[in-house]
Amino acid sequence: ISFEAHNLTVPSVMWLGLLPSDLQRVPEESLIPLTQRDKSKLTSLLKRPYLACQPIWYKEIEIMQQSETKAEIQFLASIAPDFLSHVYLPNKLRYGGWI
Question: Which of 37, 40, 78, 86 is 20 to 30 Å from 94 by CA-CA measure?
């Protein structure tokens, strides 16, 4: 499949969903501590050359490193069963809450 790699590249990606900066508004009991593997991945990501062109992504990864927490998007269902599909994502799309 490596010979097809050039056909599988994505020219641009948008990060939609829970951003590390969003987690400041998440109840603490919904936060999950980062594992050592998570921390290693974040360190590795920060070393990738393409992040030099993505300062907002870089900042979000730094926020995640500093907070040492993450959250699963499924926690939004604990607010209301349709919160993700009827409130959270529509607002992200309407107000440009992606990077």
Answer: 78
Q: Are 77 and 35 in contact (CB under 8 A)?
A: no
Q: pLDDT by residue (tens digit) across 17-63?
A: 889 999 998 889 999 999 999 999 999 999 999 888 889 999 999 99
How many CA atoms, within 13 angstroms, populate the side-chain half-sphere of residue 93? Answer: 7
DSSP 25-54: GS-GGG-EEPPHHHHHHHHHHHT-GGGGG-
Q: Rounded to 5 degrees, what are φ and ψ at 69?
A: -135, 165
25-34 exposure pattern, b = at least 16 Cβ within 10 A, e = fewer: eeeeeebeeb
In the chain, the amino acid numbered 95 is: Y
Instruction: Map tokens 């987690």 to a residue.
Output: 23
Distance CA 67, CA 61 (A): 10
Which residues are registered as beta bridge partners of 33? 69
Residue type, 5: A
